[in-house]
Amino acid sequence: MNVLALFCLGLVMVAFQTTLFRVLAISYVKAPLILALVVYAAFRMEAIRGLVLSFALGYAMDVFSGGGQGLSSIFTVLLCLGGHWLRNGIFVDGVLAQGLIGFSFGLTYGLLWVGAETLVEGGGGWDHWSPVPRVLIQALVLGLVSPVLMRVAASIDRVSGKGWRRLQGPGG
């Protein structure tokens, strides 16, 4: 049940990201806000639930943003798998750690997109690396907002888990 609540939070983030940033004409700093939920899923949820949530959020991002269908879902699943692999040695309890993990996930996500676009367009050279400054800015924005978004996700996860246990009853 808490996966559904976190998915709804992710849909709000996707709608916020795709509409508000477009209206304000600041697409240059349009950071993928759902990556904060992917970080939360990777470090705080069990593997299957985290991967399902990451896939669903990535696919929702593709549907709402009009990008290549399926690429965001593949990238978010890869990031969640990487987070599951890293979570035995990295603690993300502090604000600084959450910001650094959010920055690194945002940077990796952006570089995956740059690589995918380079493969699709063909060729090589430095002209395909021109989006890298934008990727760095988006990763920095994500690193700054990740601690707040992860706290919101933790609150929703906690509240939805308590509500689900109440619905199941005492024998639950």
What is this entry, summarized?
The chain is built from six helices and no strands.
Write the layout of secondary structure elements.
Layout: H1 2-23, H2 34-44, H3 47-65, H4 71-86, H5 95-121, H6 132-168
Helix pairs in contact: 1-3, 1-6, 2-3, 2-4, 2-6, 3-4, 4-5, 5-6
Helix content: over 70%
Oligomer kind: single chain
Which structural class should the secondary elements be placed in? mainly alpha
Count of extended strands: 0
Largest sheet: none
C-alpha-based Rg, rounded = 17 Å
Here the CATH topology equals Arp2/3 complex 21 kDa subunit ARPC3
* Uncertain parts: none
**CATH class category:** Mainly Alpha
Can you describe what's shown?
The protein is mostly helical and 172 residues long. It has one domain: Orthogonal Bundle (Arp2/3 complex 21 kDa subunit ARPC3). Helix content is 77%, strand content 0%. Helix 2 packs parallel to helix 4.
Protein traits:
172 residues; globular; mainly alpha
